Amino acid sequence: MIRVIRPGLLTSLQDNGRFGYQRFGIGPGGAMDRTAHRLASALVGNPDSVATLECTLTGPELLFETSALLALCGADLSPGIAGQAVPMGRPVLVRAGARLSFGQRRNGVRCYLAVRGGFGAETVMHSQSTSLGGKFGGHAGRAVRKGDRLDGGALAPEQFCPLLAEQLSATSAAFAAPRWRVPLLDDTASPQIVRILEGRHWELFSPEQQQVLLDGEWRISAQSDRMGYRLEGSALALENAGRLVSEAVSFGTVQVPPDGQPIILMADHGTTGGYPKIAQVAGVDLPLLAQMNAHQRIRFEKIPFEMAQQMFLQRENDVETIIASIAQRRFDPA
Amino acid sequence: MDECCLLVEFGRSVDRKVNDRVHALADHLLQHMPAGVVDIVPAFCVLAVHYRPQDMAFGKNLPSPYENLRDHIEALLSSGVVAGERSSRRIDIPVCYGGQHGPDLAEVAVRCGLSRQQVIDRHLCSEHLVHMLGFAPGFPYIGGLDTSLMLPRRATPRTRVPAGSVAIANGQTVIYSTASPGGWNLIGQTPLSLFDPHREPPCLLMPGDRLRFVPINADDFAVTAGQQP
User: Alpha helix locations (H) across A93-245?
Assistant: First the structure.
């Protein structure tokens, strides 16, 4: 059992998305930074269909009533237990009664906390993701609140990591963790380059307007959230946008509403939209974007579809390689 | 559209025949789901096929996942495997028109140059077809509205439209599946629940359904609404 002592700014259970229902208007949602979610899950031996806790900017304070095997990937929000910094990117065995809290944000926006055995998330339509808008799934269809109890954590996690358990029992430290770790977030540049593909309606924009998108520096506005990042910069113009008929959109679609300020659709995007789609963020850059905060600036770099697809497949390969190497380590402290 | 989504375009405007073709391909793919495909999203004239390229065969001298999927769909379309005729479900939707359930009915009547009863009659007689679901879970865009009921969306959207509201604009009907902001003209309300995440199936309507609206009075509305779990 895990008790929420303080909820943090926006802490919700997310898995790798709810797929198979978009034709009913049910968006896939899921973790904003899917790579961090997957790595954290792999580090505790969970499949990525088990939800992690997505912690946004200000992390929660959680009490682990029983011992637990956990892992933290994504943003560094200064996790700590009993005044000691908890190392990220590796499995961490904590004692019963451990209080995990967070402090200053050092990089990124969203930190993913996985616990072996999961958090007791509710499965709705084959997914544990929380639909914040639809108010279902995850934990009671909402972000966690003070006093919530998450009925999760595997029984006796020590049996899965005997070497770490040995290490912990030999000390009075608050937790045990190996020295190895998986790659963590790079710092973002300012402005950060984000690669895009030509959107479905790229050709409907004049060459001048296309250049405005590519030459411009765009600031992520404060009105940005899990549904979409609103960008501030030059106003893009398109004639006859009213004649476009609604069709499917996806995570990373860059659409241009009537005010001309582009919106990048993020994890909680609706399933369809009628605004012109000028571009699409390359899949490999979505986790990077998910870790960018309001007021940070980006520039777009257009790449061909074949390159984007190749990079996507290469990145998948890289992540699978890391996950395979985690499995081989079997929580070896060395 | 991107590395994980392929679009099949059948037309450029809202059209019954085009929409039928979208649904015919969607139905076929749902019955014979290609490996790696995770979602099929039909819209008015475009079908989206969401897929996981990493779950499809790829390699140095092989076609890319995108090319594979594109070739598969092109072959389906040209072979005529995808039939034009579909068996649609026919669903009755009880609606209480006007009054507190349809606060815009009077205004719609004035703007269309009709009486309120004429608006209701023409709505009832329209051949309603669910073109697609989108905007919110279970939210239908319904075509086939009588052309005499053509009018634009309201100048100022409402911040909150009650769930079940039946509304018209731009030659279509929508039914708000959940309470939300909305700019369409509210002519009535159904006591049926269009979306319940814990029900099987979660959505009352599917793309391609043909609807018949059935008028009910306010008392029947209250009774039926009370019966919804």
Answer: 162-169, 207-215
- Which residues of B sit within 8 Å Cβ distance of A? 1-5, 7, 12-14, 26, 38-46, 48, 50, 53-54, 58, 64-66, 132-139, 141, 177-178, 195, 197-198, 202-203, 206-207
Contact call for residues A99 and A82 (beta carbons, < 8 A): yes
Q: Sign of the CA dihedral A113, A152, A20, A317?
A: positive
The alpha carbon of A128 is separated from its chain's Cα centroid by a whole number of angstroms, namely 14
Whether residue A247 and residue B39 make contact (CB cut-off 8 A), yes or no, is: no
| Predicted pLDDT of residue B62 | 81
The CA distance from A260 to B19, in Å, is 30
Query: Minimal Cα–Cα distance from B55 to chain A, Å?
Result: 10
Helix then strand then coil, in percent of chain B rounded to 5, is: 30, 30, 40
Measured CA to CA, the distance from residue B131 to residue B14 in angstroms comes to 9
What are the CA-CA distances from residue B152 to residues A101, A214, B106, B149, B171 (Å)?
Answer: 53, 35, 15, 10, 8
User: CB atoms < 10 A from the CB of B183, how many?
Assistant: 14
Q: Residues 6 or more apart from A309 whose CB is under 8 A from it?
A: B3, B53, B64, B65, B66
Q: Which residue has the tokens 């006591």?
A: B191
Long-range own/partner contacts, residues A134-142 (CB < 8 A, 24 or more apart): A134/A26, A134/B136, A134/B137, A134/B178, A134/B195, A134/B197, A136/B197, A136/B198, A137/A13, A137/A18, A137/A29, A137/B197, A138/A12, A138/A13, A138/A14, A138/A51, A139/A12, A139/A13, A141/B197, A142/A12
Q: Cα(B177)–Cα(B161) distance, rounded to whole angstroms?
A: 10
Give the predicted TM-score (pTM) of the model: 0.93
pLDDT number for residue A333? 61
**Residues of B in Cβ contact (< 8 Å) with A133:** 136
- Tell me which chain A residues have a C-beta less than 8 angstroms from the C-beta of B135: 25, 270-272
Q: A50-61: per-residue pLDDT in tens?
A: 999 999 999 999
Residue-wise pLDDT for A153-185, tens only, equals: 787 898 888 889 999 999 999 999 999 999 999
Confidence of residue B38 (pLDDT cuts 50, 70, 90): very high
Residues A279, A298 contacting (CB under 8 angstroms): no
Report ipTM (2 d.p.): 0.88
